[in-house]
Amino acid sequence: MAVLFDGLLKTVVGPRVVAEIARIADIDTALAAQPRELHLVADRQIKGLLYLDGLEEIPEAGASGGGVFRANPALNLRSFTDRQEQVDDWLRQLGLDAGLTGMESLVERYRATAPTPV
Q1: Is residue 82 within 8 Å of 76, Cβ to Cβ?
Q2: Phi and psi, residue 104, nearest 5°
Q3: pLDDT given at position 50
Q4: d(Cα 92, Cα 15) in Å, to the nearest integer?
Q5: Contact 103, 69 (CB under 8 A)
Q6: What are phi and psi of 69, to 5 degrees?
Q7: 67, HSE (Cβ side, Cα atoms, 13 Å)
Q8: Which residues have C-beta within 8 Å of that of residue 45, sequence separation ≥ 6?
Q9: DSSP β-bridge partners for residue 40
Q10: How do strand 37-41 and strand 100-101 relate by DSSP bridges?
Q11: 56-57 vs 100-101, strand pairing mode
């Protein structure tokens, strides 16, 4: 999910996409806003889409088939580190929304082993 979220964000804040949005809106590219939300809708429970090693179910938390995750407006999603911070925040929210604990540790383990861009 981290790779998916990062890829989505990286695409929508990429120069070509931003330039096209600005062209359609007839504005300068500097005025093209970053995404404010991620709407995630799944055809099954979210916990079925997650790597569950290290995650524990919260008793009676119920099921989640998606959600609306707000972006932190203080982050520049064109920056790798800011985008990574946003993705990590969404993953933590996603885990809790799916009725799971332990996503913080899972995200930390992933970041410790994930390659960084050159």
Answers
A1: yes
A2: -60, -45
A3: 86
A4: 28
A5: no
A6: -115, 120
A7: 18
A8: 63, 64, 65, 98
A9: 67
A10: unpaired
A11: antiparallel
Residue 1, Cβ neighbours under 10 Å: how many?
A: 16
Question: According to the model, what pLDDT value does residue 118 have?
Answer: 61
Structural contact between residues 9 and 35, judged by C-beta atoms closer than 8 angstroms: yes
* Strand partners for 30: none
Residue 104, Cβ neighbours under 10 Å: how many? 14
Q: Which residue has the tokens 């916990």?
A: 47
Q: What does the alpha-carbon distance between residue 52 and residue 48 come to, in Å, rounded to a whole number?
A: 8
Coil vs helix vs strand at 13:
coil
Task: Compute the half-sphere exposure of residue 89: CA atoms within 13 Å on the CB side of its CA.
Answer: 16
Tens of pLDDT along the chain (118 residues)?
899 999 999 999 999 999 999 999 999 999 999 999 999 999 999 888 888 888 999 998 888 998 999 999 999 999 999 999 999 999 999 999 999 999 999 999 999 998 877 6
Tokens coding 73: 């407006």
- In sequence order, the 6+-apart residues with CB closer than 8 A to the CB of 22 are 28, 29, 31, 32
